[in-house]
């Protein structure tokens, strides 16, 4: 094999995967309010994917800031609002949710991201479902 081919292959593996595997991904949010008759299924996008990270074996020798792991997180988001059907007049029937426009590998910001993956499935409906395509 030529040295150019090997160098190109290594470069592609090192940088190509990290850039292409953290991206907006389709996701369905299920929203319901106790007072409303329906559960709303909202199609949106979230950031999901793989980010290159390193295991620090010398944890005692490094600063705390050097130990943080990169995650696939929002680079740019916008918010949209949906109307939950079947709500009585005294209830606010609107729900605002984030839509991922672009993503990046970086530190998880708990101001707008859930940085812990829960094993319990909580994204489901207990009432009749309506679909919202935005």
TrEMBL record:
One of its GO terms (molecular function) is hormone activity. It is found in: Secreted. The keyword Secreted applies. The keyword Ion transport does not apply. PANTHER family: GLYCOPROTEIN HORMONE BETA CHAIN, THYROTROPIN SUBUNIT BETA. Heterodimer of a common alpha chain and a unique beta chain which confers biological specificity to thyrotropin, lutropin, follitropin and gonadotropin. This is Thyrotropin subunit beta. The lineage of its organism: Eukaryota, Metazoa, Chordata, Craniata, Vertebrata. The gene is Tshb.
């Amino acid at each position: 094999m030529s040295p150019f081919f090997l160098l190109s292959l290594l470069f592609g593996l090192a940088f190509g995967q990290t850039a292409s595997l953290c991206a907006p991904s389709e996701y369905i949010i299920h929203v319901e309010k106790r007072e409303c008759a329906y559960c709303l299924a909202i199609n949106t996008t979230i950031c999901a994917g793989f980010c290159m990270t390193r295991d620090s074996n010398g944890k005692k020798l490094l600063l705390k800031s050097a130990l943080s792991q990169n995650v696939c997180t929002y680079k740019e988001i916008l918010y949209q609002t949906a109307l939950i059907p079947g709500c009585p007049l005294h209830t606010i029937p609107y729900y605002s949710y984030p839509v991922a426009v672009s993503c990046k590998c970086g530190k998880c910001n708990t101001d707008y991201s859930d940085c812990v993956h829960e094993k319990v499935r909580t994204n489901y409906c207990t009432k009749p479902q309506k679909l919202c395509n935005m």
